[in-house]
Amino acid sequence: MKTFGTLLILGAATLLTPAGSAEAALTACNTLTASQAPPSGYGSAFNVVQGTAEALVSVACDGSRARVTVGTTDDWQYAYRLGYLWRDGSWQRFELAGDDLLGDNWYTGPARRTITLAADEQGTDMYVVGYVCTWTGSEWKCGCRDEACRGSFWQLQRFKEVANELPDNVGQGYSGPPLLQGPTSYTGPRGARIALLGAGFGSTNQVTFTDRGGTERTVATVGSSQGGSRTGEFTVPDDLPYGMHRVSVRRGSTASENETFFIVTRPGAQAPVVTSISPQNITQGTTITIRGRNFTPQNNDVLTSYGVFRNLPSSDGTTLRFEHRIAPDEPLLETPRAPAEREYQSPTWMYVRNDNGLSAEPGQVQLSL
Predict the structure, then answer these.
(1) Over the stretch 136-175, which tens digit does the pLDDT of each residue have?
(2) How far apart are CA 70 and CA 85, in angstroms?
């Protein structure tokens, strides 16, 4: 298994699902704390109005899911019914669900949404925003950055799930849906021998590859070993299309919870190489330039430690450009921006993936929020 710093490079589609009954064993995974100043342009994820440090936007995880909770049981707090998740280079809107909806837009108790994490989202910094109003006894204060509450902001929480955390009972009778950690190699030619790592594999597992055009193909039916944490080896078919494929598994009638990827490389194909990234300090709206070689005209993905920018073109094979955005594209509420202060910084790694392979080494920048 090849890992890249804090980012385990895998690939999958992601799902948003309403909070439901299967919420056992989730543990807190949000990483912003009440003692930290909120990032520029966002409100605090904690109750700064009443000074209780109570979490107003929180996240709990269990390996492949993250449950977002906005609001509390306080009768004097209302949670807005919509939020945003930062994913694939943009903010994606979602609806929360709760027990007490007041009118069309406000919950008078906590509202939740459960997110199914893609494999390449696990182990990376992710971001979610919600919006909470608190009654002080004389006025409503909403989306506050501090006790003075000068302006209303989306309230941002950062979270990170341990990369592909597997159930504690792997090898001890785990029978949930298969969980994919990744292949033994992410790239290889036709005829390569690989296996899949994860949990919940059974005596009969169908391995499906899906190409960029959406064509699915069952490439192998294999058993498992090591307590269901490794499939049997199989051969990449000699007629499988070149390029990247999404990989999923079905154990009988039970589909895997997530996907990974495998790149079928052409003879002589040269994997992308990252030589530099500019600028070195990035923030909201920064245009990022990655220089290197072996980029393809289309379908270059930049995998970062907080998300994936997909399907980027390169006209010269040596340059990729894209805009970095960490704000809802179409905010539903007024979100005035604070002065451009650098209150939160994090090193960010960037790899390039395309149909020729995966860059062996990343570039690195500083992300400021």
Answers:
(1) 777 788 888 888 887 778 899 999 876 444 444 444 455 6
(2) 13
CB 245 within 8 A of CB 262: yes
Does the pTM surpass 0.85? The reply is no
Whole-number Cα distances in Å, 11 to 150, 164, 308: 41, 12, 9
- Do the Cβ atoms of 79 and 95 come closer than 8 Å? no
Q: Decide: 240 and 221 in contact? Cβ < 8 Å.
A: no
Domain spans, the chain: 15-159, 179-264, 273-368
CATH fold label, 179-264: Immunoglobulin-like (2.60.40)
Quick one: three-class SS letters along the chain?
Answer: CCCECCECCCCCCCEEECCCCCCCCCEECECCCCCCCCCCCCECCECCCCCCCCECEEEEECCCEEEEEECCCCCCEEEECEEEEEECCEEEEEECECCCEECCCEECCCEEEEEECCHHHCCCCEEEEECEEEECCCCEEECCCCCCCCCCCCEEEEECCCCCCCCCCCCCCCCCCCEEEEECCCEECCCCEECEEEECCCCCEEEEEECCCCCEEEEEEECEECCCCEECCEECCCCCCCEEEEEEEEECCEECCCCEEEEECCCCCCCCEEEEEECCEECCCCEEEEEEECCCCCCEEEEECCCEEEEECCCCCCEEEEECCCCCCCCCCCCCCCCCCCCCEEEEEEEEEECCEECCCCEEEEEEC
Question: Six-digit token pair at 42?
Answer: 């966002």
The domain defined by 273-368 folds into: Immunoglobulin-like (2.60.40)
**Cα distance between residue 44 and residue 57, in whole Å:** 9
Phi, psi of 365 (to 5 degrees): -135, 170
Report the distance separating Cα 290 and Cα 121, nearest Å: 21
* C-alpha 168: how far from chain center: 22
**Token pair recorded at residue 110:** 């906590």
Confidence band for 182, pLDDT divided at 50, 70 and 90:
confident
Digit-coded pLDDT (tens) for 53-67: 789 999 998 877 899
> 179-264 and 273-368 share one CATH topology?
yes
